[in-house]
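I would like you to sit down with the pair of lines that follows and say whether tokens and residues agree.
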Amino acid sequence: MDTKEIQRLLDYIAKSPLAEVSIETEGLKVSVKKFGEAAPVVSVVSAAAPVAPAPAAAAAAAPVAAAPAPVADNLYTVKSPMIGTFYRAAGPDKDNFVEVGSEIAPGKTVCVIEAMKLFNEIDSEISGKIVKILVDNASPVEFDQPLFLVEKA
């Protein structure tokens, strides 16, 4: 599935009454969730080698799982998988996904990054405890920017 196909899927879902769509093919899994009138939340995970996406489709084609990078023996840095705006919660009236001291496990959402009006959930790939949050809420982040320090379980 290329970025044009993903964009067509997003356009279709935005106009349809569907609230959620998941498509899985060999090496690619796309999940789109729509909440009311808000922009859809898109998760795209690719097992293939990453290809530089076109600028207009960067948010839809970027992998959303934040890969940890070793810092010390038992500390890991969770880094941003994309450029966008970092949010600690799903909305202004919602609780933060994690706090310092929160226990995380693979698949647990740790934050959301908004890119081109799409809200991408960033999930942990490791188990452990959040030691430090390195980015302020609603701040712009760059690709590969450190977001959290995690003490490995």
Observations:
- The longest strand covers residues 109-115.
- Residues 52 and 136 are 27 Å apart (CA to CA).
- The chain has two domains: 3-61, 68-152.
